Amino acid sequence: MKNKLYKTLFLGISATVVASASYALISPKDTVVSSNSNPSTIALAQPLSSTDIVNAPTVEQAIQPELVSITHKIKSGDSLSSIFSKLNLNHSDLHSITHTNKLGKQFATISVGKNLFFITDTKGKLQQLSYKKNQLDTLKALRTDNGFEIEMVSKMTEKRIVNAQTTINTSLFQDGKEAGLSDKLIMQLAEIFAWDIDFALSLRKGDQFTVVYEKILLEDKVINTGNIISAEFINRGHSFVAVKFEDSIGNISYFTPEGKSMRKAFLRSPVDFARISSRFNLKRKHPVLNRIRAHKGVDYAARTGTPIKSTGDGRIVYRGRKGGYGRVVIVKHGQKYSTLYAHLSSYRKGQKTGSRIKQGQVIGYVGRSGLATGSHLHYEFRVNGAHRNPLTVKLPHAKPIKSSLLAAFKVQTQPLVEQLNKVKARTLLARNQ
Ligand SMILES: [Zn+2]
């Protein structure tokens, strides 16, 4: 919300400045100064009254022609070409700007609602064109003696490390907001711990979290939140700690301070937003056969066609029809584990027996093939060939930090753990005082 607020605030300001296409005469000197700042504010920042323009001519200005600034707010249906026509600008200038280099081409991807800022001489010859792509980047084309020079002027942001700590009273979202966290950060926090804490079912009043994270600032104003650096979540007296680790190619993932992955090797459920219609039960009366027959999996009632995800990385070892199971996919995950998905309406195209599958990858779609009373997924989880309850089986961690990276991991994450501990100690001290 905070981000949105800042964005709204920001957009609000620029919209006021350029509510309509504004024309103003400015001197060449002003142009040079203003090329480092928000271009759309030039006209208002240093307005020249008509008397200035009439009374001001100097020798210098007589030699160097006056410049005219034009701000154009891009409307739906506008193209650079139509805008050039409307403003009576030379189309060969447009061509040379967009064909100078790769950067120049970016002028062709202008978006509705943003502003183009033109500077021409009094004869209407284009001298400069700017387009503010976003809060940080402005694309500029400047006339030189040899055509146009294109550059991207970027403002520098600053990262600041901050922290928050709170006790759950109502919900993660509500209490997170009250602790000053953005929606994005709360989502990030929930994602990191989602493998250990079921935020819908097992969050309790009195649970606590501490989070150390980055704030992104532009000119001393927060414009975004960055990554979570470290966090602790205490759920029902059980402490879970996560630290950020960035590998050599910039991938960010979260581990325990010992280097175990925060992720598990298996997703708890192979379908999203489905209702459990039958649980693992070794003494269940079969709804179709009407006699006691063990139910060695979990049923998820879901509409026909709902995508089914492989709960772990692995390889398809069976894909085909199998008696009462109907259409079935079996995925083997290493030596120890396998998962089975039954009653499918269809299989995912492009896969076959032997295909390698990633965790979360779709392997088929919910249906009612085989012995089934309604559209649902029957899901089984086997450990060393034995059926286990998919809802309660202890899921193994995803791969830990590679042993070759462990030293680098410790160097990178040790300070993050210390920082987290400092924050906790400070809060504890404040509470006891
Ligand atoms: Zn079943």
Task: Describe the secondary-structure layout.
Layout: H1 2-17, E1 23-26, H2 28-34, H3 42-45, H4 50-55, H5 59-63, E2 67-73, H6 80-86, H7 91-98, H8 102-105, E3 115-121, E4 126-132, E5 137-144, E6 147-154, E7 158-167, H9 172-178, H10 183-193, E8 208-218, E9 221-235, E10 238-246, E11 252-255, E12 275-278, E13 298-301, E14 307-309, E15 314-321, E16 327-333, E17 337-344, E18 346-347, E19 356-357, E20 362-365, E21 376-383, E22 386-388, H11 406-432
Antiparallel strand pairs: 1-2, 2-3, 3-4, 4-5, 5-6, 7-8, 8-9, 9-10, 10-11, 12-13, 13-21, 14-20, 15-16, 15-19, 16-17, 17-21, 18-20, 21-22
This protein binds zinc ion.
**Each distinct ligand:** zinc ion
- Report on the biggest sheet: 8 strands, antiparallel
CATH architecture descriptor of the largest domain: Roll
Percent helix, as a range, is 10-25%
Tally of DSSP β-strands: 22
What Rg do the Cα atoms give? 31 Å
The 3D shape can be described as extended
SS-based class: alpha+beta
What does the average pLDDT come to?
83
Number of domains: 3
The count of helical stretches stands at: 11
Distance between the termini: 33 Å
- CATH level 3 topology of the largest domain: Nuclear Transport Factor 2, Chain: A
Strand content: 25-35%
**Model regions low in confidence, pLDDT < 50 over at least 5 residues:** 1-63
The top-level CATH class of the largest domain is Alpha Beta
